[in-house]
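User: My advisor, Dr. K., asked me to get a structural model of this assembly before our group meeting. I'm new to this, so sorry if the format is off. These are the inputs:
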Amino acid sequence: MSNNLFADLPPDLPAELFTAFLEAPHVRIERIVSHGHSTPAGFWYEQKQSEWVIVLQGAARLAFEDRVMEMRSGDFVTIPALVRHRVEWTTPDEPTIWLAVHY
Amino acid sequence: MSNNLFADLPPDLPAELFTAFLEAPHVRIERIVSHGHSTPAGFWYEQKQSEWVIVLQGAARLAFEDRVMEMRSGDFVTIPALVRHRVEWTTPDEPTIWLAVHY
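Assistant: The format is fine. Below is the predicted structure of the whole assembly, which you can bring to the meeting.
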């Protein structure tokens, strides 16, 4: 695999694609590619680790229990451990590429 | 400050600009903006922490003692702790934006 965030995007994406770029004792960096995908209805992520996540291509709507964030390229947010969140929408027009740092 | 990687770029950049986006016990995420800057001649970074770094705009040439990497948008590399490296060149045509995860 090339070491480029924007490379190796499959032409068809039946499900979100998760690719680990770094796995270290206290940190994991991964790319997430969505293409019109959203979190299944009624499901909330509730992770034991905190996550810093940035959108680098495309567009998404990220929901928390008390607010909704519209995200465009360059937008980032920190999601503390155990804070419930879900992806409500990603644009169907192009792949949305996220970079997530779990720590 | 807005929470966008591509925002808040100063029109003039007399020196490289470092902006911390996250400081946690085992990880620090920062943006580095270069505009034609390079590491001073003869100086090598030799960091106690490891660093995962990606170029997200612009272009750069990153030198290690045994190789040189040309980096374009999306290219990333892991620099283990204590591995000497320096930035030999960044494009003068536009700001080069790096995202670095120190861990």
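One thing worth pointing out at the meeting: Chain A is about 0% helix and 50% strand.

User: Perfect, thanks a lot.
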